[in-house]
Amino acid sequence: MKKKTRLMFLAFAVLAILSGCEPLTVFDPKGPQAETLSNTIILSIITMVFILIVVYVLLAFMLTKYRASKMPADYEPPHDEGSLVLEITWTAIPILIVTFLAIVTVKSTVTVESPPEGYDHSEPLVIYASSSNWKWHFSYPEEGVETVNYVNIPTDRPIEFKLYSFGPITSFWIPQLAGQKYAMSDMLTTIHLAADEVGSFMGRNSNFNGRGFAQMEFEAQTMTQADFAQWVSDVKANEKPLTEEKFEELLEAEHVGRSSYSSTHLEFSPPPMEHSEMNENGGEMDHSNMDHENMDHTNNSK
What we know:
Elements: H1 2-19, H2 32-65, H3 84-112, E1 125-132, E2 135-140, E3 145-148, E4 150-154, E5 159-165, E6 170-173, E7 181-183, E8 189-193, E9 199-205, E10 217-223, H4 225-238, H5 244-252, E11 259-261, H6 275-280
Parallel strand pairs: 1-5, 4-10
Antiparallel strand pairs: 1-2, 2-3, 3-11, 5-8, 6-7, 6-9, 9-10
Helix pairs in contact: 2-3
């Protein structure tokens, strides 16, 4: 009875702890890439629950049917050679389960690593997202603006985040819009996403990499195309350009608030080359080939 009481107390304690956890926003997707990941996770959970139900039902059946009974002391059970059918069955079933989950995983991975489906009519908005201890820098080369610790993106348009780091490896993650991907110091990685709804979503560094990890969050605000264009105009009109001295100051600071600038750091501190381009050039970093043709640096002279 004491053991049962302990188990009940433990169960209530676990429920109390879980009740204070944040909602699982990964199951509330607001974009096609995040929806693919959410559906894959749910399908995997359903598959595992089905397996557990089958296993426990078979366990109860076996314990009931073949439970020990009162037999004479000299009783000897009949000798069985085994069942080839059963052996093939319990070997084939795990293989089929793993094969099924592998196919689903590969298919969903290919989907989320590609530009969002249904957005072929518009060019993607490229945003360079770089991390430093313990903050995020978002550079808009086409618009010629930059933000710190927040990012605004338009809805109904594909987005390409080009990720890299000025410090240790970080992991860029907006649970309601896309999966996570690492940002490293010597190469670019790309994450594709799109937002279907206007709203505010929290992003974070999901890779534990030091004492400032817990505070390394940012807001991703999605807005209409018109509101996004207006926001860019306001930043260009009201914010100062980002100088090299100011950028060095931001990199050295551990924690800063949100800020906006009417130019980007890409001009004086270009990002590393994408991994595929590095391989084609034998590992040499040729920044002249980077896609900055559409950069607007006209505001740098202000």
